[in-house]
Amino acid sequence: MPLSSLSSHLILRHHPPRSLPPTSNRPPPHLRLLLAPFTRRRAFVCQPLAAATDDMAAAAAAAASPPTLLEHMGQAGAAADLTVLVAHIQSACKRIAALVASPGNAELSRAKAAGGGAVAAGRDAPKPLDELSNDIILSSVKSSGKVAVLASEENDQPIWISDDGPYVVVTDPLDGSRNIEVSIPTGTIFGIYNRLVELDHLPLEERAQLNSLQSGTRLVAAGYVLYSSATILCISFGAGIHAFTLDWSTGEFILTHPSLQIPPRGQIYSVNDARYFDWPEGLRKYIDTIRQGKGQHPKKYSARYVCSLVADFHRTLIYGGVAMNPRDHLRLVYEANPLSFLAEQAGGRGSDGKNRILSIQPVKLHQRLPLFLGSMEDMLELESYGDVQQKVNPGYEV
After folding, report:
1. Which of 39, 84, 116, 360 stands the most exposed, by the fewest C-beta atoms within 10 Å?
2. What is the CA radius of gyration of the chain?
């Protein structure tokens, strides 16, 4: 078809003649006058229109695409200082994600930490991979310029960073690192507090310690990063909980699970069943009851246990149920408090089997306790059995 005829055809599709005989292929005189400039200048007129349409489509697609973590914080009106800090924490976690996925990580997870020697009471024996992750987070929060104190599972004492940093960060840099050799998911856990300015007059060591031992009710934000088939950052700023998945093509954490809510009740429990005969009577009775479908929920529960706290909690957050370690094993400051904060923000509960975790005042940096996390109805049923805390640990180390 000649160019002029094609142009005529396009125009006529959008402006059909009302007085033209059905058998005629020629437009009426008034349409021929309108058609002439389009025919002569098609290359100059249609191309810019097409480009403008492409730009509009791209803008619409961008507007419809889910926000990144930092975009979400901007939309939510987060404080500028907090946004800067979270930007540095997410950057550190991207580096850790690459580290745990690297070919040399198995050797690092097997090796002993440099220097060896005794480990402070309450701490796990560190490995090079733990220490590398700790160094990455320490470097990132230092460079943010927004942190006064960092308290980590990998350090005997909290580290004072800056006199004017507005925040305190508590963290387990790489939870579950012993599982890396067999490619089981691992994670990073963190909590953020405001610096207690009323303590600024105290000696530095005391100031650092007391800032790190704040009650979980004072958390400004908390989160975890799951390093698995996907790298997922789940975070709350005290107004709900949102999960962001790392898009490796762009290097951005993209909102994939907005306003997460843990189901009121699940059908999964997560615990090391091999310790069944060491459990107290109340916990054994609870597990026996729900396994048989004789509890408050008439269905039989299934056991799912990864032995990686972040992975077990993430599954519980999505599917509901209970994740637990009934021993005095998990750390209040940088594991139990941040995860309980997230559980509550999602409509669930964090408990030591008797008390709300966030109401417990820490007295030691590496203080341990039993930890139960999960759906509200499941947690209340569990606590109703009373005796669920395992106080003896025969045959194995804490």
Report:
1. 116
2. 29
H or E, element range at 328: strand 322-331
State both tokens at 283.
């916990």
- Over the stretch 95-118, which tens digit does the pLDDT of each residue have? 999 999 887 766 665 656 555 544
Give yes or no: 174 in active site: yes
Query: What pLDDT digit, counting tens, does each position of 70-103 carry?
Result: 999 999 999 999 999 999 999 999 999 999 988 7
**pLDDT tens for each residue of 239-259:** 999 999 999 999 999 999 999
Q: Are strands 231-236 and 241-247 parallel, antiparallel or unpaired?
A: antiparallel
Of how many residues is the chain composed? 398
**Is residue 181 flagged as an active site residue?**
no
pTM score, whole prediction: 0.82
- 172 carries an active-site annotation: yes
Instruction: Determine whether 281 is an active site residue.
Output: no
In tens, the pLDDT along 123-153 reads: 566 668 899 999 999 999 999 999 999 999 9
Q: Which among 69, 150, 153, 213 is annotated as catalytic?
A: 153
Helix (H, G, I), strand (E, B) or coil at 107: helix
Is 130 among the catalytic positions? yes
205 assigned to active site:
no
Active-site position among 131, 175, 378, 383: 175
**Annotated catalytic residue: which of 82, 85, 108, 130?**
130
Q: Is 153 considered catalytic here?
A: yes
Exactly one of 131, 154, 344, 383 is catalytic; name it. Answer: 154
338: closest CA among 177, 227, 222? 222
